[in-house]
Design goal:
Number of helices: 5
CATH topology: Rossmann fold
Distance between the termini: 56 Å
Order of helices and strands: EHEHEHEHEH
InterPro entries: Archaeal_FAD_synthase, Cyt_trans-like, FAD_synth_RibL, Rossmann-like_a/b/a_fold
Keywords: ATP-binding, FAD, Flavoprotein, FMN, Nucleotide-binding, Nucleotidyltransferase, Transferase
Catalytic activity: FMN + ATP + H(+) = FAD + diphosphate
Shape: globular
Number of strands: 5
CATH superfamily: HUPs
EC number: 2.7.7.2
Helix content: 25-40%
Cofactor: a divalent metal cation
CATH class: Alpha Beta
Number of domains: 1
Radius of gyration: 15 Å
Strand content: 15-25%
């Protein structure tokens, strides 16, 4: 039997239902889910994580859909992908990565895998699906 490996990646700072939704959808794209947790110093597209790197890996690893979790490479985000050799890279519905850009980088490295984007989770009225929004709410309510 052929096993399909899927890679999901993200910051995963202050876990919320949107993260769980993304990881469940990613897991459904294959058999084994590998999650690459971004190093704090590599998060440049938004505010740096509040939660330390190792703690974020530990929290992600504890989630049911996740088979393996690891910290991303310090210098090259594609190193873990080369090591895992996934069949699918699952992007979150709102992640800043462009599918075409990832596909081009994979082609340049001789990596043959599909790039797919997970769908959004519909938030209920009282649900917060963003780490930034959670932090804002904490600051508002605790100030």
């Amino acid at each position: 039997m052929v096993t399909r490996d899927v890679v999901a990646q993200g910051t995963f700072d202050i876990l919320h239902p949107g993260h769980v939704h993304y990881l469940r959808e990613a897991k459904a794209m294959g058999d084994r889910l590998h999650v690459i947790v971004a190093r704090s110093e590599n998060v440049t597209h938004k505010a740096p994580p509040v939660v330390p790197d190792r703690q974020r890996v530990e929290m992600v690893e504890a989630l049911d859909p996740v088979d393996y979790a690891r910290l991303g490479h310090a210098e090259d985000i594609f190193v873990p992908i080369e090591q895992i050799e996934p069949d699918v890279i699952a992007l979150g519905y709102d992640q800043h990565h462009e599918v075409e850009g990832i596909e081009t980088a994979l082609d340049e490295r001789g990596l043959d895998c599909e790039v797919r984007r997970a769908g959004p989770r519909k938030a209920s009225e009282d649900e917060i699906l963003s780490t930034g929004s959670i932090i804002e709410k904490i600051l508002d309510e605790r100030s």
